[in-house]
Design brief:
With 474 residues, the protein is mainly α. It is built from 17 helices and eight strands. The protein has one domain: Cytochrome p450. The chain binds protoporphyrin IX containing FE (HEM).
Length: 474
């Protein structure tokens, strides 16, 4: 009798694993990360800080510190290496930042027509390589990476991307994205192969835009790798995975776009809504460089680490904020809304905002002209599943067939079970990487070598608040 009860309980526990294990593991991961990382950051919005404080503090000039003085920076430098010190996102304000930022803007200053033409050309080319005959399940993020590798290679070098370079770029970007989500460790050999390739390209004078004086060949290669062959590829691919998955899971939106593929206003609204609901930055952090008196009687001391939670901000002030409703933008003034998909104006926002928006929209339009999309997987902001989605060639008979329904059910079951396995992998690899990053202290050591007294050497006056959970960070 006791054996039977034990077997029944065991079976119930095993069969219900997808319902309780992933969230339990995430809580455990949050706890472990916080223990290793320490508690030093101010979470916004968070205890004692509302969305008004979020806006007021994010917009401050004295809240533009990016790397120096925050233990959290060691983690980001670890994930973005090699060359995080040359990644525009992490260079502190000053003459180097100004020059690098100007160069990025120059490279990205491409006409709308040219962006549309390149997006069109590369999407059509890559759709062929997906080999969808009738219907097929693909992982959207994986499918998008080679396309963006071709696109950004052309933007940077003005040339077609050779196959071996595409392989290097995709290998690097895939590993950065997977490591950030704790689904893989950093594969430094793979990343450094791309660095070596870029060093060779810089040495042969392949970059059509002159680099500002005073930067070594290695630094130039790191810059290209960080901004264009890491951030650009990862962000564009993740953004597309979210956009297409959201369309796949909202029939009304899908069918309206399929019916009116040239309805530019509705496309804009759909992309905005995807960026609102699934912002690519979970948390971005800033370090205050002076005391900030941002409201009567309230001062944020110099050296504070501010963690801005983009998703929490994007869910504030909307009707049914969790729902995916592009039409809501009919009645919303974007400038007044809690909406900063490309960062806070005035505090180092995304230099690719214009180009990325145009290109993503065009790529999605071409994809939807060729396929109907369906998916039954969990759609979270961090999307560690890489966006499994069923593509059905236009004109195929599909919507009522038993085969299609079985495929949807199978996709759902597989996704839930993958979640179980993945959550354990994330716990183990994430804990190791957070520990390793704390041990290597890439950011802290860099500033110790490059500045006699880094901010991190001075005792911080920052009030201690709970660190945001790792779930929010990625
Ligand atoms: C859907 C596409 C993209 C989204 C949603 C996005 C979003 C963002 C956000 C929110 C920030 C500000 C983060 C913060 O405040 O800490 C940012 C910064 C940045 N992004 Fe993007 N990004 C995208 C694509 C790209 C692309 C294609 C590139 C490169 C070509 C790029 C390069 C950068 C750089 C260099 C920064 C740092 C800016 C600075 O500190 O001066 N992003 N991005």
């Amino acid at each position: 009798m006791i054996t039977t009860i034990t077997i029944v309980i065991g079976c119930v526990l095993v069969l219900t694993l997808p319902h309780w294990l992933p969230s339990l593991v995430i809580r455990l991961r949050t706890f472990l990360f916080t223990q290793i990382n320490g508690e030093e950051a101010v979470a916004l919005p968070g205890q004692g800080f509302d969305v008004g404080d979020f806006r007021a503090l994010y917009g401050q000039k004295a809240a533009r510190g990016r790397s120096r003085g925050a233990a959290l920076s060691d983690l980001f430098w670890y994930w973005l290496s090699p060359g995080p010190e040359m990644h525009q996102e992490h260079i502190e304000d000053g003459p180097d930042y100004e020059q690098i930022s100007r160069l990025t803007h120059k490279i990205l200053a491409v006409s709308r027509d040219h962006v549309d033409q390149l997006a069109d050309q590369y999407t059509r080319r890559h759709i062929d390589t997906w080999r969808v005959r009738g219907r097929k399940v693909i992982r959207l993020r994986d499918a998008m990476m080679p396309l963006w590798a071709d696109f950004y290679y052309r933007i940077v070098f003005g040339e077609e991307c050779p196959a071996h370079a595409r392989e290097l770029i995709v290998g690097n970007a895939r590993n950065v994205a997977n490591a950030l989500k704790c689904c893989d460790l950093r594969r430094m050999k793979r990343r450094l192969r791309l660095t070596r390739y870029l060093v060779a390209r810089v040495e042969e004078g392949a970059l059509p835009h002159p680099f500002p004086d005073g930067f070594s060949v290695q630094q130039q290669a790191y810059y290209l790798q960080g901004t264009f062959f890491n951030t650009a590829i990862v962000q564009s691919s993740e953004g597309m995975a979210h956009l297409l998955l959201a369309i796949a899971q909202n029939r009304r939106v899908h069918d309206r776009l399929a019916r009116s593929p040239d309805d530019d206003i509705y496309w804009d609204q759909t992309l905005k809504e995807a960026l609102r609901r699934y912002p690519l930055f979970g948390i971005s952090h800033r370090i205050t460089t002076q005391d900030i008196a941002w409201a009567p009687g309230r001062t944020m001391p110099s050296g504070s680490v501010l963690c801005f939670n983009h998703l929490a901000y994007h869910l504030h002030g909307y009707l049914a904020p969790e729902e995916f409703r592009p039409e809501r933008w009919d009645h919303i003034d974007e400038k007044q809304a809690s909406f900063i998909p490309f960062g806070m104006p005035g505090n180092r926002p995304c230099p690719a905002q214009r180009l990325a928006f145009i290109a993503m929209k065009r790529v999605a339009q071409v994809v939807l002209r060729h396929f109907d999309l369906y998916s039954s997987v969990e759609h979270s902001r961090s999307l560690p599943s890489r966006g499994p989605c069923i593509l059905v060639s236009k004109g195929e008979q599909h919507s009522t067939t038993v085969a299609h329904l079985a495929l949807m059910a199978g996709l759902r079951v597989r996704d839930r079970w993958e979640n179980v396995y993945r959550s354990i992998v994330q716990l183990v690899l994430g804990t190791y990487m957070v520990w390793d990053a704390r041990r290597l202290k890439l950011c802290q050591r860099y500033f110790e070598q490059h500045e006699p007294r880094a901010l991190s050497d001075t005792p911080s006056k920052c009030p201690r608040h709970a660190m945001p959970g790792p779930k929010d960070i990625r």
